[in-house]
Specification:
Layout lengths: L1 E6 L7 H14 L4 E5 L5 H5 L10 H6 L11 E2 L8 H4 L4 E4 L15 H4 L1 H6 L7 E5 L6 H9 L2 E6 L3 H20 L5 E7 L7 H14 L3 E2 L9 H6 L10 H17 L8
Parallel strand pairs: 1-5, 1-6, 2-4, 2-5, 6-7, 7-8
Antiparallel strand pairs: 3-4
Helix pairs in contact: 1-11
Magnesium ion (MG) binds next to helix 1.
Amino acid sequence: MQILSVSSLKGGVGKTSVTMGLASAALHNGVKTLVIDLDPHADATTGLSVSRGAGREAGQLLREARRANIAEHTVRSGWIDLLPEELQRDATLDVVVGSALSSTFDRPDIRPRDMKRLKTLLHGLSGYDLVLVDCPPSLSGLTRIAWAASHQVLLVAEPSLFSVAGTERTMRAIRLFSNEFAPQLTQAGVVVNRARADSAEHEYRLLEMERLYLDKLMLPVLEENSSWQQIQGAAYPVHQWPGDQVRDMAQSFDELLKQLVPAKALNG
Ligand SMILES: Nc1ncnc2c1ncn2[C@@H]1O[C@H](COP(=O)(O)OP(=O)(O)O)[C@@H](O)[C@H]1O
Ligand SMILES: [Mg+2]
């Protein structure tokens, strides 16, 4: 079971979008997946077609980390109902619901004891190939809780000046954090989101990112896609949405997923 945190220093760069794109690719490729919505805004919960309040949510489970059995509180994503009927039975895509409650743990001065709460919850969990943790937009308590429980961090960045600088700071923060608290933690790479082929600035920043991150820059780069908000608004998996441009996007997530989970977890 691969536990992957999706993080960035800033909001609005596409953490939730990447989490959902990967969840859609996982569903499409038969990778049994659990999405943990740690962001108090709970956008991933909504996007995965789960109503807030459907199960005991992340904040409450973190509070009860020692006693709670997380497997009893996962909720099935409504995306499964959109699959052809014959595929629904074997599909696994579950969600640990997010809510504002988790924000009580989002302090910069989080105690090491609290930092282990998600790790404790996930200890002994089985039945999934992949756990995706959608993090809030800061490196505060909740992101640290996610990292302490994870094998890998996937960073999301936009091809812009501040994002490049922020990503470098975040990579440093991950190195320091893993040295001190999480020896198992590695950097999966940096996914670039919302790139525009017609933008000279984006092209320049992409070259800069290639130079800075070397093999940590993950390909393909995800393009700006005008349908994306509509897809998310409809709480739909990108793999089920019609249109060529969206199909390219879905394939990009397939490619990224293949680099993140062991080949044996993928169907076919
Ligand atoms: N590749 C993309 N093309 C177009 N819009 C995007 C793309 N990625 C994200 N967005 C939009 O940008 C906004 C922020 O994305 P989101 O995934 O919520 O970021 P974060 O979780 O990092 O705060 C959302 O409205 C989302 O629909
Ligand atoms: Mg988000």
